[in-house]
Amino acid sequence: MQVPDGKVWELETASRRGSGLPALCPVDRMPRRLRNQICIAVIAVGALNFLSYTVTYAVLGGDAPNGHRELLLRPDGSQQVVYFVRGHFLRSLSGREAQVSRGVWIYSYLHSLSVLLTSAAMIISMLVLARPHILATMREGPISGRTFVTAFGLLVVLVTAAALVVFVRDLLAPPAMAQG
Q1: pLDDT higher than 60, residue 91
Q2: Which residue from 48, 100, 140, 163 has the highest number of Cβ atoms inside 10 Å of its Cβ?
């Protein structure tokens, strides 16, 4: 549906009031107050997740994605996987590794993945909250507010998905053989 630039705001407002016009965006199909409460809750959960990640990183001295796993061959011929977290510049300029249990390493890796997801959810939530203002201020110009919001949201989703693929690939990769 082609809408003149000056009429976008009126159409969206009319669609929320139940005038029978279709909502221009899926987030407009729910009451504004509920939508805003959900977005604020997502932002709060994401901030708490980031805070807990930061505390865990400080306590462990790093995280699993910056660390690694090694496959050690014992003198008796058996194999053992050892897990290390590594922190960049936390303890020294070069960073430092700390050996941790398998469970702690997996937790650290999964928590790192959750930070990626909650960060993206926070950005999308902030975009949804700012959307009316973006639409109102970007009515004229080389790019419309709707196009900007859509493109920015898509960019966040694509970058997050790509990072998630890389992290999950590294998580599922077999441990490297220990050197030396």
Answers
A1: no
A2: 100
